Amino acid sequence: MKKIFFLVVCLFSFLIASAQYSVTGGNGTPLLVADNTASRIQVYLLNGLANAQLSFTSTATGTHQWYKYTTRAANAVPIVSTQTGNTSTITALTDGCGYFVGEATDPATSYIWIIDYSQHLPNFFSMTVDDEEFKCQNIKLLADIEADPLDYTVYSGARFDLPRTYHLLYDNLQWDDALAQFIPEKVDLPIKGIVSEITLSAPLTNTTFTLSGDEFSEHFGLEKTLSTPVYESVAVEAQVTCRRLPATEEPLAGDMNFSAPVELRFEAVANEPAAAMFIWEIIKIDRESKDSTTIVRYTDKTMTYTFRESGFFRVRLEVIGIHSTCFNREHFFDINIGESLLFLPNAFSPGASIGTNDEYRVTYKSLIRFKASIFNRWGNLLYTWTDPDKGWDGKSKGKYVPTGVYFIVVDAEGADGKHYKVSKDVNVLR
């Protein structure tokens, strides 16, 4: 018996699954806009109902009884259909009504809801830009649009909305890391539901805002559009980099700790022409007293500066927009120039082992002036150099000097104002 019951249930389910509705007619192809499985209902939009018809096909034999309802299936009224074989058809469909074949109390009964979309087209009147408040960050689009609510009723009487979706099209700029510049962007923003007021991030370029839709009108070729006059961008956005010269080095990031002198180049890229002026400031800050002093003020997109003093500096960029309306002060670099240091080794071994301790070099930090001289025991000058990054290779007149004791004299000045006058022995070893 259990097997027989199981087979009967499967057969019944197969017959129900095989039965189906089809919707035709109107101007264009009917659009299925909702398939509510829980409520066993499908919702179709048609562009006009003059030649529309709804059919039902079943694998089971017998006459189909059609019903029509507006509020709940239990209050449905029977309607006449024409049937050929296992397919029955109704015509003279009504906007905003539900239809079904079978008994409303039967859990296998499914439903079709019909909406004549031509009776509910949105009306576009005007759209304006409201940028009186916070226009450097956001703008508002005020749209005057009328649109009837689209909804449907399931068999229980519960109503569900069909929100319309519009598309807002406009131009903007987006930052491209690979190109290191702002590039044009076409924005296509879906707007779902009521569109009387749309808040957007302020665009970075001049643009026209165009609202189109809804998506149902697009399907039927009835799409409407609404555009604003050209909007002049005033918002300011910038990207900045800092490089240590030579400029072949990658942009610097993170903590910036240097020894003086160090030459840095600061570059700004912004959304011109909305961004109209660039002002760089270098501010020296006393970390103990918090006192600050502006030491440089420069107006250009690129600034190169050599830091020769020790201390803590803040390099800040201000970008000013067209008409001096908007400002961007978000970008700054904190730079620490360390205190000076100088250390002179006691010995080295030129010509003994190539690449290992074969050149006399000093260890230093933040020196802004440097001169070193090598003398022999009789006080004769053998070599002089002024770049602390360089050194003495242990040669005089192209030949290695003999092993022994020599003398170095250094005169240097640190970025912190400290003076170095050092004289000491240097041992040349083999």
Question: Any overview of this molecule?
Answer:
With 430 residues, the protein is mainly beta. It has helices at 2-18, 215-220; strands at 20-24, 31-36, 41-46, 53-57, 66-69, 77-79, 82-84, 87-90, 97-101, 111-116, 123-130, 138-146, 151-153, 159-161, 165-176, 181-192, 197-201, 210-213, 224-227, 238-244, 256-258, 262-270, 275-285, 292-298, 302-307, 311-321, 327-337, 341-343, 347-348, 363-365, 367-375, 381-385, 395-396, 399-400, 404-414, 419-428. It has a six-stranded mixed sheet with strand order 2-3-10-9-5-6, with no helix packed on it. Strand 13 (151-153) and strand 14 form a beta hairpin. The longest helix has 17 residues, at 2-18. Mean pLDDT is 91; it is low at 1-18.
Helix fraction bin = under 10%
Shape: elongated
The main sheet orders its strands as 2-3-10-9-5-6
In DSSP terms, counting alpha (H) and pi (I) runs of 4 or more, how many helices? 2
**What average pLDDT do the residues reach?**
91
- Radius of gyration (CA) equals 41 Å
Low-pLDDT residue intervals, each spanning 5 or more residues? 1-18
Q: In this structure, how is the largest beta sheet organized?
A: 6 strands, mixed
Structural class: mainly beta
